[in-house]
Write a structure and sequence with these properties.
Blueprint (H helix, E strand, L loop, with lengths): L6 H4 E5 L1 E2 L7 H20 L2 H19 L4 E9 L3 E3 L3 E12 L2 E6 L6 E6 L2 E6 L4 E11 L3 E5 L3 E4 L9 E4 L4 E6 L30 E10 L11 H11 L4 E7 L4 E6 L14 H18 L3 E6 L6 E5 L2 H12 L10 H7 L1 H7 L2 E7 L13 H14 L10 E6 L12 H11 L1 H9 L2 E6 L6 H8 L7
Parallel strand pairs: 4-13, 16-17, 16-19, 19-20, 20-21
Antiparallel strand pairs: 1-3, 2-12, 3-5, 5-9, 6-8, 6-11, 7-9, 10-13, 11-12, 14-15, 17-18
Helix pairs in contact: 2-3, 5-6, 7-9
Amino acid sequence: MTHRLPAEARHATAPAVGTIARSPTAYAGWAAAVSLVFISGSVFLGNIPALAVGVTLLLGLAIGLTVKSPGDVRIQRRVSRNSVSIGERIEVEWVVNVGTGFGPVAVFDSFSTDLALASGSNVRMLWKWLRPATYINRYAIDCSKRGIYELPSTQWESRHVFDLWPATRGVGPAATTLSVFPRVLPVRRLRAHGGIASSAYPAGALAALGVATTDFKEIREYTAGDPIRSINWKASARHAAATAGRPLVNEFQREGRRAVWIFVDCSRHMLVGTNLINPLESAIEAANAIGHFFLTHGYYVGAHFSGTPDDFLYPDVGRRHYQSLSARLAKLSPEGEYYDLVRASHVVRQHLLALSPVCIVITRLDVQPGPDSPSPAVHPRLLQGIETLGHLSPSRIRRMPVWVVGINGYLYPAEQLPGSGFATRIRHFETRPVVEDLRRRSAIVLEWDPRKEAFASALLRFTRGAKVT
């Protein structure tokens, strides 16, 4: 999905404003002083050649001072798009009109180091002759990292051809905001999940709200609020004779929208790697792809980010909500030492209880704090968070499905190191107990190496030959 703004926001036109030079430069002063020395010396000594040199210098200075540096500069800048996805390109075009003067004019744009110049040049040196002139320059920017960037106003500087007057500087149109969103990975519908955990696959998740239909779903234990007419008396009698437990009720499919809740870990331990390639950027891409997939299939989607522990994205549906999710993901920055999933669960507990969504936690599973690390252990907190999500399920029989997308962060720094294969295998085995602990808590664990496969391929591999439509 491409993010676009209105056309009038993408075309900036404004006259450039410059500073008008009021006094000559030091070169003019030195030239005038030298010419006066030659003239006075030649008069005193009666040296005609020296007098000619002094007069020539003085006449040249006078003529040079009458020549104006380029002025009346107007710049029109056009940006092809203000909003793009990672990997896409933005085309920028200048139209520079210079009305008066004679001499060189430098025009340039500056932008963030996270944006790469793909073609053309963002710095041009123009030569203005005596007549008014129009110059066109084009260049392209590659957007390799998500975020909100500002393309400052185009700047220009004109100089006197003999450098006798100070340089005139100005700016063109107003600054332009560029939004780079995570790219949408091609996630498609998956069926017939044969996974390890007992949780339902998200594509088959059912709505927790809505009017009950006549389609039978399951038999479960009675919970507060269930109507008396839904009790299955025969099954309850057999269940009570065996366990002396609560009555059992018949539950039917409900009409309405299903729900997914995404928990994105954007703490500092997700920054292993480079500025452009690290687990945090991969986690944001996965969250964006998951949100896009479920929103296009009519799900409610909510999200919580570790960088804003007391704030979250309210669950909603539709394309506008996907744009809100992408905007939040584009602005994420690493905050905190770890993701407190227990706190996040309590912050959004009202929505979890109301919607009973599929919970998807995107984080790293290979974090091992050292003995001198001031931060608490990450894995116990993750396991506590998974248990908390299980406690927020409507009943012990029908638990909320919980996914854990584990990004292999230890592979990022070891990619170019010699002899790193053995070390990465050791680190891979170190995460096995964590994966087993998560699966024992009925969580579906998807381990993903973004350097080797796309997110959709990881899902296909995880489902063990599931059919895709």
